[in-house]
Please model this.
Amino acid sequence: MAGRVQGKVALITGGASGIGRGCAEKLAAEGAIAVITDLQDDMGAQVVTAIVKAGGRAWYLHHDVTDEAAWEGVIAEIKAREGRLDILVNNAGIGIGGSILEMTLEDWRRQTAVNLDGVFLGVKHSIPLMRVSGDGGSIINMSSVAGLKGSAMLAGYCATKGGVRLFTKSIAMECANAKDGIRVNSVHPGLIETPIWLTVGQAVNPGANEAPDLDAMSAMAVPLGVKGWPEDIANGVLWLASAESRYVTGQELVIDGGLTVR
Model:
């Protein structure tokens, strides 16, 4: 089924790698104009090139999601170039693992700024442009299974992702009350092969200088026995972005191979 988001304008933060890249490529393949933002400019340009080569439409902007002025600039550029915004994937995030006794206030605030403030700013500045078209829209906030249950050595990360979960539900109700047609949902990935494990991995393998073995972790902890890939998350994001999920808002879509059920 092609063209599930045909002609829609989609903003994907943190779209230069990992889950963000997977979402950008999937949405573009289904007809959306993918606006990719990140701090990794070279990698962002590579994603745009790959999408265009595959016959899709995409462009890139440098973007620090913790900077409100930067958000204002990104939304203004989308309005000037496309005239509308239909889909927001608030994906940009970082993971800092380790004992809460050793975490610095600076790291706590940096993680909160990216993972929670960035989502707040994205919602705040995207909704007005979404409302311009009168066609509603879909906001998809990337949380985590760490936003559903606690994990030792990941207290700061869990706090931000849990915050995203309840923030999402509150904004969903605000938009529903406004009758603006904007749906707001969160996605909760499990053990997915992404670069974030280079930092979060310290929580499961203290002192290591490389990412943990996700295959071994998945075989032990995931009921399906295997790790996930960015495309697995992107498939869920596509569904939430499309009209197929028109009656879904304020919900959490858990994509974790059964990890949170065990």
